[in-house]
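A favour, since you know our structure tokens better than I do. Could you add the entry underneath, on a fresh line?
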Amino acid sequence: MAPSWNRWSRKLHRWGAVIICLPLLLVIVTGLLLQVKKQIAWVQPATAQGVGNSPTVSWDTILQATCSVPESEVNSWSEIERVDVRPDKGIVKVRCKNRWEVQVDFQTGNVVASNYRRSDFIESLHDGSFFTDRAKLWIFLPNGIVLLGLWFTGLYLWWLPISVKRKKARAKK
């Protein structure tokens, strides 16, 4: 029984690694980029500091400030994906649908920073949703399951020579 389990484990480990190599590489590289997104402005723009920490400008002022940045391609609220209020920084981050981020000081209404935000795109690559929801479910989920299998078979293959040596040592006694 043991030799067939050993052979099966090695085959599963070898073929599993080949099958998941490309999706796993994408997950690893994007995961590493997401780990350092706060340290690398290319991935996610740093949060600027506003004047105060109490909002005094209206939503219309925030929209006008965002519209004043040509790269944002914003003319109305419908072109804005998300608004992130950071009271401790005195900033409102406006994330546009084209992945542009405009940071507006919520006391003065001035644009403090305007940058392209790549972290959301990288995250969609990381979880597979960039491709389609089907790819996320039928490629990236099985990829994770096979990776879990590789972990188990890898542990077994690591333990196998140790257990053989122990058995031989006991037999000599």
About this structure: Residues 1-43+125-164 form one domain. The chain has a mean pLDDT of 90. The radius of gyration is 25 Å. DSSP finds four helices and four strands in the chain.
